[in-house]
Design goal:
The chain has about 350 residues and is α/β, with parallel strands linked by helices. It is found in: Cytoplasm.
């Protein structure tokens, strides 16, 4: 898999000019959603590199991360004259960068694309690492491919207009990066003031968080080994998301991951010896900032079924990424159905679900 350039921008216009120069093209397209086109595109249209770009707008939110939306992007590209030498720029959150990346991967068997993430979640997670995809058959990211952007341009000034709900969604992935990297990074994330944000400090934290992911992806681009470290909190988190989708209870990805981290730190504690004090500290931060996702014992079997569909599994065995200590990761760890139900009991007890 080719390496993508991830740029923490000082000047978005200058970085964009350089990124576009790397991708000779016959026609330039910009994909946004209904939120981004009204909030971000007025300023971006003024940038000289985007003066002649053709815009494609799709519906916002994860409910539009579907085959129908993907087909509408293919159709728009086709009708507006895109060729295999065209360039697509995805401007938006994780839904746009995931779906836009998959559209680029599949249109004419693959066209070049650039990601400009506008949410914290997209900056530190979705837009970096080359994973693209859509939801399908009620399952998160069920269809997709590894197809990295040529460049990812991270402009943290976009975060000033982000609401707290979406800020915290992205921050959950940063907290995960802290847990799988170093005690120092984990600690600074737990003590960062999420109520009164220092945006210059946040920019530095975002840079460190992206570096954690980049380093891991470089070692294992196709997720055969250590890249599974990035799945901490996701086996349970994706199950929570799928349940929420099925029950029409909208939750953002990062919130589901945060609640998944609570569950998987418990498994880490009982199965891998993760320190109880660090588990409690992390769970307290999550409880204070993310609240809880209500489940009862009647939903355990459904959550278990969703976990069985997780892409990390093999031979019907549910695999987890667990921690022995902050930064000491154990991949491909299994748990029995009884252990998983005990984990869900712990979640309900400590989170007040």
């Amino acid at each position: 898999m080719s390496k993508q350039d991830v740029i923490l921008c000082e000047s978005l216009e200058h970085s964009l000019e350089q990124a576009i120069e790397k991708c000779p093209h016959d026609k330039l397209f910009v994909l946004t959603d209904e939120h981004t086109t009204s909030l971000c595109m007025p300023a971006l249209r003024e940038l000289s590199p985007l003066k002649n770009a053709v815009e494609i707008v799709i519906g916002a939110e994860d409910t539009h991360k579907t085959l129908d939306t993907l087909a509408s992007v293919w159709q728009a590209l086709s009708e507006k004259g895109a060729s295999r030498h065209s360039l697509l720029i995805n401007v938006g959150g994780g839904m746009v960068t995931d779906l836009g990346g998959f559209a680029a991967a599949t249109f004419k068997r693959g066209i070049a694309y650039i990601n400009i993430p506008t949410t914290l979640l997209a900056m530190v997670d979705a837009s970096v690492g080359g994973k693209t995809g859509i939801n399908f058959n009620g399952l998160k990211n069920e269809i997709g491919s590894f197809f990295p952007a040529s460049s990812v341009l991270i402009e943290t000034e976009f975060l000033r207009s982000l609401d707290r709900y979406n800020f915290l969604s992205g921050y959950a992935e940063m907290l995960k990066h802290g847990l799988i990297s170093t005690p120092a990074h984990w600690s600074e994330l737990l003590t960062f003031n999420t109520e009164h944000i220092d945006y210059s400090e946040l920019k530095q934290l975002v840079g460190r968080s992206v570096q954690v992911k980049e380093d891991i992806v470089q070692q294992d681009p196709f997720e055969h080994g250590i890249r599974k470290a990035l799945n901490l909190g996701h086996t349970v988190g994706h199950a929570f998301e799928s349940l929420a989708l099925a029950e029409n209870r909208h939750v953002l990805h990062g919130y589901a991951v945060a609640w998944g981290v609570v569950c998987e730190l418990y498994l880490s504690n009982v199965k891998a010896g993760f320190p109880t004090d660090k588990m409690r500290q992390t769970i307290q931060f999550i409880k204070e900032n993310y609240g809880t996702f209500f489940i009862d014992c009647k939903t355990y079997d459904r959550l278990y079924e969703y976990m069985l569909h997780d892409k990390k599994n093999s031979s019907g065995i549910i695999n987890f990424t667990l921690l022995k200590e902050v930064g000491d990761v154990s991949i491909n760890q299994s748990a029995t159905k009884d252990e998983i139900f005990e984990m869900l009991d712990f979640y309900r007890e400590c989170m007040g679900s």
